[in-house]
Amino acid sequence: MKLIYICSPYRADDDAILQRNIEYARELTRGVLLQGGVPVATHLYMTQCLEESVEEERNTGLAAGREILRRCDAVFVGVKYGISSGMKAEIELAKKNNIPVVFSEVMREAT
């Protein structure tokens, strides 16, 4: 089974957009699971352990996420809500490490 890094927006200016971004990451994660992959959505779980509003903690989470990304077989980029600066950095890191990058609005569920 392949490790698939989920790349989608997280940060938001308000709670409604944040919740939308979380739901989108969950949707992408579910799609990868149903396709037989092993999704890695660091922004879904690291934000449960670290304070996003504390810059040092946010940077710790981002550094850990980059290290995890380097170990993945592919990066799945959810583009439904655009590509944030953080996502751009993850995409560039994947390309630099010759990790395949797939762009899509949704991850198609297995039928």
Could you explain how this protein is built, in words?
The protein is an alpha/beta fold. Helices cover 50% and strands 15% of the residues. It has a single domain, classed as Rossmann fold (3-Layer(aba) Sandwich). It has four helices and four strands. α1 links the parallel β1 and β2. It is globular, with a radius of gyration of 13 Å. It starts with a strand and ends in a 7-residue tail after the last strand.
Described by strand count, sense and barrel closure, the largest sheet is:
4 strands, parallel
CATH class: Alpha Beta
Order of helix and strand elements from N to C terminus: EHEHHEHE
Task: Indicate the CATH topology.
Answer: Rossmann fold
* Fourth-tier CATH superfamily name: Hypothetical protein PA1492
What is the mean pLDDT? 92
The proportion of residues in beta strands is 15-25%
DSSP, total strands = 4
| Form type | globular
Q: What attributes does this structure have?
A:
single chain, 111 residues, alpha/beta, Rossmann fold, 15% strand
Blueprint (SSEs and pairs):
Elements: E1 3-7, H1 15-34, E2 38-40, H2 42-49, H3 55-70, E3 74-78, H4 85-96, E4 101-104
Parallel strand pairs: 1-2, 1-3, 3-4
How would you briefly describe this protein structure?
The chain is of the alpha/beta class and 111 residues long.
